[in-house]
Write a structure and sequence with these properties.
Helices cover about 70% and strands about 0% of the residues. By secondary structure, it is an all-alpha fold. α1 packs parallel to α6 and α6 (about 80-110) runs antiparallel to α9.
Length: about 250
């Protein structure tokens, strides 16, 4: 993921090489997570995200189970301590593997490119014509528009946090799944298949599950569906807990 982040940054640098500074788009537009301008990068990242988040540590229970280390672990610690310490570690690992490449690219873009630009570089709320049409006429291109107008940099930091939180929950769900299906390939790839399939089915509706964790995802999104989407992530991660603990007790 870090390599992907670096490659996106290098491509942006090559594209802008020897371009007059007044014609260079600002750092927030160069950020690869900005789906408004870098749709191809964001699309690739969104496809990889569910697998990368789960691959970080979601199969750790299966590693203990298949390696016959589970009985030893459970004799040295409480069952609940084992389960929840794994869950917390899985959450932070899943979040980190998605947060780090974004933060890396974001910092590099802010170092290499101007923070602000007078160049009419695209359809953007900060551009004069679009600002007037959207803000004063009442159009709505994406959620949290007021935050974007206040500072596009804070806006993307906000969405980086959202994506990291969602990725942690995705990893936790895969971890929960490992208590019921003892197949590492299935556990690591299930969310990859499920999320990309849902993206294909719901991408043109208000219930675009993947679109809500990316900044500047334009079209058909509402705050109600944003809340429902986050709630679905939380429920998927939390609901299997009592059943997973019960399965773990059967291993004792």
């Amino acid at each position: 993921m870090a390599v992907f982040s670096m490659v996106c940054f290098i491509i942006s640098c090559i594209t802008e090489y020897k371009t007059d500074i007044i014609s260079v788009a600002p750092a927030n537009a160069q950020f690869f997570f900005n789906a408004f301008y870098n749709a191809s990068y964001t699309r690739i990242f969104s496809v990889i995200l569910p697998f990368a988040a789960c691959a970080a540590y979601s199969d750790s229970y299966l590693s203990d189970y298949n390696g016959n280390r589970l009985p030893i672990c459970l004799t040295r610690t409480k069952l609940s301590d084992y389960y929840f310490s794994k869950l917390i570690a899985v959450f932070f690992c899943g979040s980190f593997v998605i947060l780090f490449p974004q933060v890396l690219n974001y910092i590099l873009c802010m170092i290499a490119f101007p923070m602000e630009s007078t160049n009419e570089y695209g359809l953007d709320l900060w551009q004069s014509t679009v600002y007037v049409e959207d803000v004063f006429v009442g159009g709505s291109y994406f959620l949290f528009k007021k935050l974007y107008i206040f500072s596009p940099y804070l806006y993307f930091i906000f969405y980086i946090i959202i994506s990291g939180f969602a990725s942690g929950l995705i990893a936790v769900f895969a971890y929960q799944l490992s208590y019921f299906i003892k197949n590492r390939i299935f556990v690591l790839s299930f969310m990859f298949v499920a999320m990309n399939l849902s993206d294909a089915l719901f991408t043109s509706t208000k219930f675009d599950i993947n679109g809500y964790i990316f900044g500047c995802s334009v079209g058909g999104q509402t705050y109600l569906y944003f809340i429902l989407t986050i709630a679905i992530y939380i429920l998927l991660a939390a609901l299997p807990t009592p059943f997973a603990i019960k399965r773990l007790k059967n291993c004792v």
